[in-house]
Amino acid sequence: MTAEREPIHEPTLPVIDEETAWVHEAAGRFEHTGAEALLEWALDRFHPKMAISAAGGVDGMAILDMAWRINPDVRVFTLDTGRLPVETYGLFEEIREKYGIAVEFEYPETAAVSELVTAEGPNLMYLSVDLRIACCEIRKVEPLRRKLRTLDAWVAGLRREQWASRRNVAKVELDTDHGGIVKLNPLADWTADEVWDYVRKNEVPYHELFDHGYSSIGCSPCTRPVDPGESERAGRWWWEENTNKECGIHCSVQLMGSKSDGEKAAAGEGASA
Ligand code: SF4
Predict the structure, then answer these.
(1) Which of 22, 85, 184, 209 is the most exposed place for a label (fewest CB within 10 A)?
(2) Which residue numbers are catalytic?
(3) How far is ligand 1, taken at its centre, from the CA of residue 124, in Å?
(4) What tens digit of pLDDT does each residue of 140-188 get?
(5) Which of 132, 240, 244, 253 to mutate for ligand 1's pocket (most ligand atoms within 8 Å of CB)?
């Protein structure tokens, strides 16, 4: 069993304004630099209290590859919801083989999953948005919260062009949804084509389902292939209308919309931009 790592960062310190200013300064400094420069700085500043979040998406794979070239000991974690497509596990095996990275698997609380599924059935996500969000909360949001309590910084593959709720993400943010740790989005200003160019040029392994019409990878019951012309995240929770195509790990989910840290800042709600 792995010993619990204590964070060097203390989210409850009363220096939040200073920290916010520091993060804003870093966001400005790295806004027009390459993703590698941001990762190099972040690895130097936060490793080993920093980890990349990977769920099988091509963005996370590009980041993993870049970071590994800078520091082969880079940490990577994933949230195993118990409903992932089998191809996702194949990709994580490839990561072990090619990079020698032991991806850290995080799991939901068994009792919470059992209680929800026993009461509502295994395919409860199709019954109502509330139940879908409850499933995401138990299988993704809570395990992520638990993981991030052990870290000072985490890295995500969010890009501004992916969806409306992501249009204001900054490259360096204070993640107020997770105790004020630092969140890095090195590909915030990349396009999907640029990510794929990087992956092909550097022979980065990618998820098999991308060759079968998928443009975003998530849980098996909640992700479908997209048609030509559909947006990147159209295949996620495709049966829902007027929701934000988010599960709550990158923002606080509300039924009719969510806000990134950048949007909260723009709205004067105290988060960083
Ligand atoms: S994406 Fe679907 S299966 Fe996965 S946690 Fe959310 S509702 Fe549950």
Answers:
(1) 22
(2) 247
(3) 9
(4) 999 999 999 999 999 999 999 887 777 888 999 999 888 889 999 999 9
(5) 132
Structure tokens, 241: 């209308």
**Contact by Cβ (8 Å): 226, 234:** yes
| pLDDT over 60 (residue 11) | no
Of residues 134, 123, 160, 157, the one with CA closest to residue 248: 134
Task: Please indicate whether residue 132, judged by its CB atom, sits closer than 6 Å to ligand 1.
Answer: yes
Q: Which domains does the chain have, with CATH numbers?
A: 16-266 (3.40.50.620)
79 lines ligand 1 (CB under 6 A): no
> Cα separation of 233 and 216, whole Å?
6
Among candidate residues 52, 22, 20, 66, the one with its CA nearest the CA of residue 151:
52
For ligand 1, atom 5, the nearest C-alpha belongs to: 136
pLDDT tens for residues 252-263? 433 323 333 443
* The predicted structure's pLDDT at residue 16: 62
| Rounded alpha-carbon distances, angstroms, from residue 177 to 21, 48, 114, 264 | 17, 22, 26, 11
Q: What is the helix (H) or strand (E) element at residue 58, kind and residue range?
A: helix 58-70
- Mean pLDDT score across all residues of the chain: 86
Please give the DSSP secondary-structure letter assigned to residue 208: G
Report the distance separating Cα 81 and Cα 138, nearest Å.
9
DSSP 87-123: HHHHHHHHHHHHH----EEE---HHHHHHHHHHH-TT
In Å, how far from its chain's centre is CA 65?
A: 16
